[in-house]
TrEMBL record:
InterPro entries: HotDog_dom_sf, MaoC-like_dom, MCH/BMMD
Protein name, as recorded: Dehydratase
Protein species of origin: Cellulomonas carbonis T26
Family that this chain belongs to: Belongs to the enoyl-CoA hydratase/isomerase family.
CDD domains given in the database record: FkbR2 (cd03451)
Domain MaoC-like: 15-132
Entry-linked Pfam families: MaoC_dehydratas
Length: 156
């Protein structure tokens, strides 16, 4: 019997210009939003107070943008970095052009923007990823660039 262990991609398998569609999507509920918002001590009424939010420009509570970001990146893990990542090196250019609301479904995709072997860490490479999140209607709700350190296939 052959064993197959799910993993992300090695440095060598990540090709610049490749777009990965992460499925399934994730429907974000009121419970998700309230739990995340309170766990992270974000007391923003726009996420917690339905009566107050009803009188604001969106007319309802918004899903916490940090939950949107975390879910968008999390959706990429199984396909790209599960067991192959060494470290998250940083995020840049994070934007939320449109909010998510309770009951919206987040679909994410990632483009490998660039990569290079690490000069200081043999057997590892630096990879730049561009994440995009869309709601069920295809509207872009979040974008972020992320730099990760990834293991090479034959690294010790």
């Amino acid at each position: 019997m052959k064993d197959v262990e799910q993993r992300g991609l090695w440095y060598e398998e990540l090709e610049p210009g490749t777009r990965y569609l992460h499925r399934p999507g994730r429907t974000l509920t009121e419970a998700d939003n309230v739990l995340f918002t309170t766990l992270t001590m974000n007391t923003q009424a726009l996420h917690l107070d339905a009566a107050w939010a009803a009188d604001q420009s969106w007319g309802q509570r918004l899903v916490n943008s940090m939950l949107t970001l975390a879910t968008m990146v999390g959706q990429s893990v199984g396909q790209l970095t599960q067991g192959t990542i060494v470290a998250n090196l940083g995020f840049g250019e994070v934007a939320f052009p449109h909010p998510l609301f309770h009951g919206d479904t987040l679909y994410s995709e990632t483009v490998v923007a660039a990569k290079r072997l690490s000069a200081s860490r043999p057997g590892e490479g630096v990879v730049s990823l561009e994440h995009t999140g869309r709601n069920q209607d295809g509207t872009v709700v979040a974008t972020a660039t992320r730099t990760v350190l990834v293991r090479c296939r034959d690294a010790p």
